[in-house]
């Protein structure tokens, strides 16, 4: 019995040590999420769901922002070969010209990241706002925007393993991590593909607001939170 109690107490101690305390100082409040033609739905709304839950616990503002403050379509530039219609259109809250001051800027991925004309204003806005941000976050191929803006130079980063060749062509000074679910380097967070954005944003919430808050958000979503090192897709794609 004594040995069993010792083991149980050992587990409890291990979990207690793993708890993360909130970051000191002012917490970020204004969070912007990029929209553009042919964005990936879960890259935006998976993250948005976690932030929505966070907003029930602490004061934050989440803004959807695109180049001209209009409607941004999920629809890709070229029709699906299957003839499917799975599009949606979302109205932005602000444009890049009238966006409020931001503490956090989040750029997701999608087919649109492969179109240079579409991404040019997103890259320029990202480059412009980064120096004043508390945190910069990318999801999936959104890392290509950060790379093209020069933000990832000299940093560790990851991206969608299925789009590895496309994203990693940008920026030769980036230390790409092929076997990470998400990566933090300074105030920059990058995540792997699609659903990994949820794991990354939950990891970021834990880093900023602590384990108690992130656990509340995670449980409210009924999400199984994969850690930063919990990635199988690099191996799956032969990286």
From TrEMBL:
Transmembrane segments: none annotated. Gene3D superfamilies: 3.40.50.880. It comes from the Eukaryota. The keyword Signal applies. InterPro entries: Class_I_gatase-like, DJ-1/PfpI, INH-QAR. Keywords: Signal. Residues 1-18 form the signal peptide. Pfam families: DJ-1_PfpI. Residues 81-197 form the DJ-1/PfpI domain. PANTHER family: ARAC-FAMILY TRANSCRIPTIONAL REGULATOR, THIJ_PFPI FAMILY PROTEIN (AFU_ORTHOLOGUE AFUA_5G14240). This is DJ-1/PfpI domain-containing protein. It comes from Orbilia ellipsospora.
